[in-house]
Amino acid sequence: MSGLEEAEWESINVLLLMHGLKPLSLVKRTDMKDLIIFDKQSSQRMRENLKTLMEETSRQQNMIRELIETNKQLKNELQLQQRRAADQEQRANDLEQIMESVKSKIGEMEDESLNRVCQQQNKIKELQKEHKVLQAKCEHYEKKQMEQQETIASLQKDIYTLTKEDEERVITRNRVFSYLCKRVPHTILDRQ
């Protein structure tokens, strides 16, 4: 075995050890009883095959490591997306509750507004009735006042007439008395 072959086999052994495999033993004895001998071409092919196998194994292990890493990243991404989805769902639920609360509040406000409108309409009707009653009372009192004014005017006229008549009576009486006093002589006592 040449020094180059021996060096190649040593590098193969290093690769085997790196992959957790047992190394091959290189024999320099003349006792060939327990040995299988390959020719140089077969030995060369075997070295190339082992080297290719080790390289392929390394490549696959790298791929497996990359796949594991990618898988971890995907799991992390999935967990992140799941957390985001859960957050979004929670936000949606919160918004839905807020919407329900707002709808409920709007319904209450509409009911209150409707009740207020009904109360105001009832109040307006009551005030209109009251207005009609007061208007009727006003008309009644105005009529009564006019009647009273007519009565007062009539009474004032009567009082004026009576006063005039009374004044005329007094004047007439005084004239008669004066006339009588001039015609018949009386004592002072009679005049009084």
TrEMBL record:
Signal peptide positions on this chain: none
Molecular function terms from GO: gamma-tubulin binding
Keywords of this entry: Coiled coil, Cytoplasm, Cytoskeleton, TPR repeat
InterPro entries: CEP70 (IPR037692)
GO BP: cilium assembly; regulation of microtubule cytoskeleton organization
Tagged with keyword Cytoplasm: yes
An example Gene Ontology CC term for this record: centrosome
Protein location: Cytoplasm, Cytoskeleton, Microtubule organizing center, Centrosome
Coiled-coil regions, chain positions: 40-158
Superkingdom: Eukaryota
Main location class: cytoplasm
Keyword Cytoplasm: yes
Quaternary structure, from the entry: Directly interacts with tubulin-gamma; this interaction determines centrosomal localization.
Role of this protein: Plays a role in the organization of both preexisting and nascent microtubules in interphase cells. During mitosis, required for the organization and orientation of the mitotic spindle.
UniProt name for this protein: Centrosomal protein of 70 kDa
Organism encoding this protein: Eschrichtius robustus (California gray whale)
Lineage: Eukaryota, Metazoa, Chordata, Craniata, Vertebrata
